[in-house]
């Protein structure tokens, strides 16, 4: 399961008001210092997507990314020096 924290869900709901999309797309792509880079964007459901409803927000994930994101929690942090969405993946072997 992939989940959103309450903080992330609230921020996404606010941002979705301004968008013409129904949810967010979470995924991974090759690159980055640890082999993969997380990506998050506003989108609509596509064919073959896994669809998860977390805290009232639809999360769309392609089948390949789904395997890498299982168990991940997406948080939104708003602190001095760090503001944005943060992926907390217990399966990640290393981060940078």
Can I get a quick summary?
With 96 residues, this protein is an alpha/beta fold.
Order of helices and strands: EHEEEEHEE
Q: Give the biggest sheet.
A: 4 strands, mixed
User: What is the end-to-end distance?
Assistant: 24 Å
Radius of gyration: 13 Å
Total helical elements? 2
Task: Summarize the structure in words.
19% of the residues lie in helices and 44% in strands. The protein is α/β, with parallel strands linked by helices. Strands 3-2-5-4 form a four-stranded mixed sheet. The protein has a three-stranded mixed sheet with strand order 1-6-7. The protein is globular.
Describe the secondary-structure layout:
Elements: E1 3-4, H1 6-16, E2 23-30, E3 36-43, E4 50-54, E5 57-61, H2 63-69, E6 73-79, E7 82-88
Parallel strand pairs: 1-6, 2-5
Antiparallel strand pairs: 2-3, 4-5, 6-7
Key words describing this protein structure:
single chain; 96 residues; alpha/beta; 4-stranded mixed sheet; 3-stranded mixed sheet; 2 helices; 44% strand; globular
């Amino acid at each position: 399961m992939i989940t959103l924290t309450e903080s992330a869900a609230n921020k996404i709901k606010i941002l979705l008001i301004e968008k013409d999309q129904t949810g967010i797309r979470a995924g991974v792509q090759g690159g980055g210092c640890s082999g993969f880079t997380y990506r998050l964007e506003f989108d609509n459901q596509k064919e073959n997507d896994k669809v998860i409803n977390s805290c009232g927000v639809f999360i769309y994930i392609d089948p390949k990314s789904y395997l890498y994101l299982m168990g991940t929690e997406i948080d939104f942090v708003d602190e001095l020096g760090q503001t944005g969405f943060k992926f907390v993946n217990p399966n990640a072997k290393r981060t940078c």
